[in-house]
Amino acid sequence: MSTRGWLTLGLAAAAAISGWSIWQHRPPKSALVAVDSRSDYVLQDFEVVVLDNLGHESFTLQAPRLARSPGDRTMTLATPTFLIPAAATAGAVPTREAGWIVTSQTGWVSAAGDELRLAGTVLAKTAGTRAQPIEMATEQLNVFPHANRATSPTTVTVTQPGSILRGQGMEALLDSKRVRLTSNVKVHYAPQAR
């Protein structure tokens, strides 16, 4: 065989070995995972009481529909109503009469039940008969029931007897009924009739 033949044969062998090596070291084909977009369960027209670590009521949820995601175990809700009791004081049991009633168009509950994300027309008002009722209206509200805290990055209107506050962003301590608006705050005083 001529030098040219040997050279061609050598190059063909090197190409075959290179091709085989590349084939063996290619990244593995990503396995096609079937994504199940179905919920692992759905509740309709229900009421559920969620307890904290001490066995006290953290919040009660009523809604026409709840769907639980099987992957991250979060829940999505349609037109939910949350009843959030006031925090326990000195070993007392939390009570609904001094808590909050919160409604929205949609809702999301974390897997641990420690965060509620409410969207749409969100309305939070103090429950029971109080001398100083408070009502908060916004388009987005994040509630942390274990910490008795709520936040909103959007415009919030807080109405109570004698005044209407409106501002961008909010932090509220639900047990003490303290609300702080973070920016662009406007106050309208409306004297009460005597």
Automatic annotation (TrEMBL):
It comes from the Bacteria. The keyword Cell membrane applies. Signal peptide: none annotated. Pfam families: LptC (PF06835). Gene3D superfamilies: Lipopolysaccharide (LPS) transport protein A like domain. InterPro entries: LipoPS_assembly_LptC-rel, LPS_export_LptC, LptC. The keyword Protease does not apply. Keywords: Cell inner membrane, Cell membrane, Membrane, Transmembrane, Transmembrane helix. NCBIfam families: LptC_YrbK. This is LPS export ABC transporter periplasmic protein LptC.
